[in-house]
Design brief:
Layout lengths: L19 H7 L5 H6 E2 L3 E8 L2 E15 L2 E24 L6 E7 L8 E9 L3 E26 L2 E17 L2 E5 L8 E4 L6 E4 L16 E3 L1 E19 L3 E20 L1 H9 L63 E2 L7 E2 L1 H7 L2 H6 L3 E2 L9 E20 L2 E24 L21 E24 L3 E12 L10 E2 L7 E4 L7 E15 L2 E13 L2 E9 L15 H9 L7 E9 L3 E14 L1 H4 L7 E14 L11 E11 L2 E10 L2 E2 L13 E3 L2 E11 H5 L6 E7 L6 E5 L5 E5 L4 E7 L3
Parallel strand pairs: 1-6, 23-27
Antiparallel strand pairs: 2-4, 3-4, 4-7, 5-6, 6-10, 7-8, 7-9, 8-13, 9-12, 10-11, 13-14, 14-17, 14-18, 15-16, 18-19, 19-20, 20-21, 21-24, 22-23, 24-25, 25-28, 26-27, 28-29, 29-30, 30-31, 31-34, 32-33, 33-36, 34-35, 35-38, 36-37
Length: 756
């Protein structure tokens, strides 16, 4: 804020200008550069997720072999999953907030390129509590028939079909309550490089401290998905093991439809917007979410809708009156209780009944985006392919050479359909004036389709040469194609974040990227399952996709139908806090094919070794180990980069297996890596990084029938995952600026398995 507001707390005097002198005086030893550039958590929040997850899976297989040379089969799969979870969190509002920093400390004195706040006291603090019960239901059905026919000793035919259909439904309302401003709340902040400590002066587990204050909101959002795939493939092999030719083809038809539903604004108006007698869509104005209970004419600052009954609302009878919020601000604490996670929780059945949730949910209109972040729309891909390979094994120089060489032709027809929203020109009169509030027409929504067609020839060859009885040399080369992310191709713009600072735009013109792959390997077999192997690989990728991030004025979004009037009140408040629609900047992201080449080089090592040859000397057998490691280096002469690829990973497992006892101890480790591009959260140079991560697991099984000689006895399983209690962490540009931290703890599993 420009001046200290009343009730800011921290001993600050209301009305004092907040200028350079104020900031330096209240942050002894700090520089303006540090105060300006240092990082705080954008939304420092604790999250609790709880509830049951139910799963049902069924598999059915049938086979018929009328002759020795003819074999038919069918495999069926059914899956059902239902999650009934409550996700709730409490967040310290830094983004779009009005905190006043005092007594700041920093991790370094030079903050030219950024630094991190390590401590301080923040006056005028506010917290946001978000309660979200969500129900997710997934159903999957799949059937795969097929057949094999050995026509002769040198001719074999394989045919296979597939059909799958899955549905997904997510219902996820939100109740967002905030603590009031002007009550003297302060935050004591400490960051030692782990999870920061955010200590509120208000008790966040006291229902009396939350209500419909600045930044409060509610949401009704659903998402439905329908995925189908069907196809057929077959191949004909002519020849023997020494030399054969295989030809075949495939047809696949895959489609996916995502539909989002949103009735948030209408519900919010009724719940906490003083309940107007009529709901008119944006770009007409909307009442604030204040929990006002003032029946009658429009209170001061609330829309009066002077144009109601004309334009888009022609034929409607006015004037619009107000009935009072369904859940007034004074009643909010009665819908809250202290929560198990240390902050308040919502009595959802009581809140849903009082807010008429079912009515607004059942009448939610379709929207262009879902609250999972996915854009609504449909994608269909029809892929036709054919291949021919020459396979065989021949003796060369006294050793065996095995080979496979061929080419695949693939043709893809891709149809992408999505919603595009544009301002209705009827909202502007011939004189350039806007229609009066209450009569403005909502954006014009149309479905736009794009058709992409591409065809590629993809060769591949593999050679394996035995060197004596124990070693094999392998060489392989191939050309592969990877299709772009379908969700990034849907047209239209997603601008649903409450902070109104990020927009994502689909790119239907995204093309697949191609990779030329080379592999060279050597394997040495030490006996039984023992093997030592080394492999070097290179992938040279053209047309790789990256996220393009541009910072533009908010006004630039008007071409996509996004204007100040189309925003909800929460977004308008956020935009105003950054200078208003004529000043505020937003980040626009879109997937693009980058023009430069990305080269990935790697080395892989593996060693599988039973230790009986050593331990037998002391009368013990059954021990062994399995270890592998991968080194990856990527280079590019431009922006192409594969994010989230660790430069070094390894896995080591030690085991004992004998006489019905199996015990394994394993470790998995990976180095930290860059997880995103720059310009994260509006900071041009900031990216997200993952830290080094190592975890240890224990697994065991005991076949009681073998151990005790009890016929039909079950198998006992004892597993401990992450028994060293490792933590998975990411950070925001600087390693002591924690972005996420996940500590699942030790997980124990004890089970019995038997047959009857």
């Amino acid at each position: 804020p420009a001046v200290v507001p009343a009730g800011a707390g921290g001993g600050l005097v209301a009305g004092t200008p907040i200028d350079r002198a104020f900031l330096l005086a209240n942050n002894p030893g700090a520089t303006i550069q540090q105060i300006d550039n240092a990082l705080l958590p954008r939304l420092g929040r604790n999250t609790s997720i709880r509830g049951p997850r139910d799963r049902i899976n069924a598999i059915m297989s049938a086979e018929w072999q009328p002759t020795d040379t003819l074999h038919f089969y069918v495999d069926g799969l059914y899956g059902y999953k239902k999650n009934e979870l409550i996700r709730e969190n409490v967040a310290w509002i830094v983004r779009n907030g009005a905190i006043i920093p005092t007594n700041l400390t920093f991790d370094k004195s030079d903050c030219t390129v950024g630094c991190v706040v390590t401590g301080g006291t923040f006056a005028n603090a506010q917290f946001f509590n978000e309660f979200r019960p969500y129900t997710e239901t997934t159903k999957l059905f799949s059937v795969n028939p097929g057949g094999e026919w050995e026509i002769s000793d040198t001719l074999k035919l394989n045919l296979q079909g597939n059909y799958a259909r899955s549905t997904f439904h997510r219902e996820s309302p939100s109740v967002g309550l905030t603590t009031p401003l002007g009550v003297g709340n302060t935050v004591t902040y400490t960051n030692d490089g782990g999870i920061p400590t955010i200590q509120s002066g208000l008790d966040l587990n006291d229902p009396a401290n939350f209500g419909w204050n600045a930044g409060s909101r509610v949401n009704i959002q659903d998402e439905r998905r329908l995925n189908t795939s069907k196809g057929a493939r077959g191949d004909l092999t002519w020849g023997a093991k020494a030399l054969n030719l295989k030809v075949g083809g495939a047809f696949d038809n895959v489609s996916r439809r995502i539909t989002g539903y949103d009735n948030s604004q209408a519900w919010q108006n009724a719940v906490c917007g003083n309940n107007p007698s009529a709901f008119v869509n944006s770009p007409n104005s909307q009442p604030p979410c204040e929990g006002l209970n003032a029946p009658g004419a429009a209170p001061a600052g609330y829309p009066t809708y002077p144009g109601y009954g004309t334009g888009s609302t022609a034929g409607m009878a006015g004037p619009v009156t107000y009935g009072g919020s369904l859940i007034p601000n004074s009643a909010v604490p009665t819908y809250l209780t202290p929560g198990p996670a240390g902050f308040v929780t919502v009595d959802w059945p009581k809140f849903a009944a009082a807010s008429n949730y079912d009515f607004y949910h059942d009448n939610a209109p379709e929207t262009g985006a879902a609250n999972t972040g996915a854009s609504g729309g449909a994608i269909r891909e029809v892929v036709k392919s054919a291949f021919a390979t020459l396979n065989g094994e021949q003796e060369l120089g006294g050793n065996m050479l095995r080979f496979n060489a061929g080419v695949r032709y693939v043709n893809t027809i891709q149809t992408i359909t999505g919603r595009v929203s544009l301002p209705d020109p009827r909202n502007t009169t011939a004189t350039g004036a806007q229609l009066p509030d209450g009569s403005r027409y909502p954006n014009l929504v149309s479905n736009v389709s794009t058709r992409n067609v591409y065809s590629k020839w993809l060769p591949a060859a593999t050679f394996a040469y035995d060197v004596g009885e124990h070693a094999v040399v392998r060489v392989a080369g191939s050309r592969t194609m990877t299709r772009p992310d379908p969700s990034a191709q849907l047209p239209g713009v997603n601008f649903g974040a409450p902070s109104a600072d990020q927009a994502s735009i689909g790119n239907p013109a995204l093309e697949p990227y191609l990779s030329t792959n080379l592999d060279l390997g050597f394997e040495y077999y030490t006996g039984r399952e023992g093997v030592v192997s080394f492999n070097a690989f290179r992938k040279s990728i053209d047309g790789f996709t990256n996220t393009s991030i541009n910072t533009v004025p908010f006004a630039d979004l008007a071409q996509y139908g996004i204007t100040y009037d189309t925003l909800n009140p929460t977004q308008q408040i956020a935009l105003n806090s950054r200078g208003g629609p004529t000043v505020a900047q937003v980040q626009v992201t879109s997937q693009v094919n980058v023009p430069n080449k990305l080269t990935i080089n790697g080395l892989e090592f593996q060693w599988v070794q039973p230790l009986d040859f050593l331990t037998r000397m002391i009368g013990v057998t059954g021990f062994g180990f399995n270890a592998n490691a991968t080194i990856v280096d990527q280079r590019s002469d431009g922006p192409a980069q594969a994010f989230g690829v660790a430069p070094f990973t390894y896995n080591i497992t030690g085991y004992y297996e004998k006489n019905g006892v199996m015990v394994r101890v394993s470790t998995t480790s990976r180095d930290g890596s860059q997880n995103s591009g720059a310009a994260q959260n509006g900071i041009p140079a900031a990216a997200l990084y993952g830290t080094d991560y190592t975890t240890y697991d224990f697994s065991s099984s005991f076949d009681l029938d073998k151990i005790f000689g009890l016929a039909g006895a079950p198998q006992l399983t004892v597993n401990v995952a992450n028994f060293t209690n490792a933590t998975l962490r990411s950070y925001f540009q600087f390693e002591n600026a924690t972005f996420t931290q996940y500590k699942p703890g030790r997980q124990f599993l004890i089970g019995l398995r038997g047959t009857f």
